[in-house]
Structure prediction request, 383 residues.
Amino acid sequence: MKVLMLGASLDIQGGITSVEKLILDNAPPEMQIHHVGTFAPGSVWHNAIIFIQAIKTLVWTLLRRQADLVHIHFSERGSTLRKLIIVLILLAYRQPFILHSHGAAYQDFFAGLPRLVQKMIAVLFGKCTKFIALSENWKNYFIQTFRLDTNKITVLYNPVNLPSNIPQRRANKQVKFLFLGRIGKRGGPLDVAKSLISFPKQDKGAFDLIKAFAALPESDRNLAELVLAGNGDLETAQQLILELGVEEKITISAWLSPEERDAILAATDAFILPSYNEGLPMSMLEAMAWGLPVIVTPVGGIPEVVTHNQNGLLVQPGNQEQLVQAMQNLIRDENLRISLGTAARRRVECFDIKNYINSLLDLYTSVIRQGKNFNVTEIQLNN
Prediction:
């Protein structure tokens, strides 16, 4: 089974890359995957070269019939626009392909596109062999938006590696809260396209979290600490921390390696991600796999994984009062932290990468079978 996978470069920091790496690291011998990056860190011109090279690799692979199927990861913004070109090439070569959606702000992005561009995306993306959505909520959105047949789209929740040893996390003098993700907003209009396309801003709520932590009663704040790790506007975040006078309680860190991430998750008591938009955040799933209680928002696919007061706490995006109250609850009640964390771990056990790979293998097999049936039918019609 030869698969060409197209998506974010493996040195990009983010959830899509995390999913790609998990697939590549756990693929069985019968699943030979060649990954090609269509976007990488660097300037616009550097990425233009990266994309041209990816197109060359794609065409060369198709000409030599070296792929049974193509697996495309996409999100909003430039990712969708690049993948339109790739889809056109695949359709010209009658190559079976899977579209795998990831975008956190895809609804806002798509709604901001000109009507003609919307129709073009819907028509071309609707011609995929199979479509992967991250949740039932996103599945319903893409069925309606791209007018997909229900038998063409499937839900694959993002996978996680389940650590074998989970810390007890009892009798800790300080409750450590952890935020993983982009600090500050991402996006806004691109100068080269702002007259045509409205690019939505993505916000994981890091600045809301800093303000809410500073708003905790002093008695609670003295029993807690907060670590924010990620990329983005770290300097502005540090300035806000200084202005609020909580520099002794909040630490800002750059993006963590997988080893560093696991180490800090093991040393953490609770995870917080007060996002305004999400697909299905890998950082949340990783935290739950480590047995952490999570404070998150009911956006994207999150409500299908986290149930309020059962395996996590849900707060509305931008609601500082709810965020403060949720942190207070976890600071003051160790038993609540432990029970929510234990339930969180149980909830994501079904998302283990081994189960995910089996599902993906079944999906790949069905796509290849469809491609062979299509080719046989075409030959019969020609004869």
User: Anything to note?
Assistant: Confidence is low (pLDDT under 50) at residues 188-196, 376-383. DSSP finds 14 helices and 14 strands in the chain.
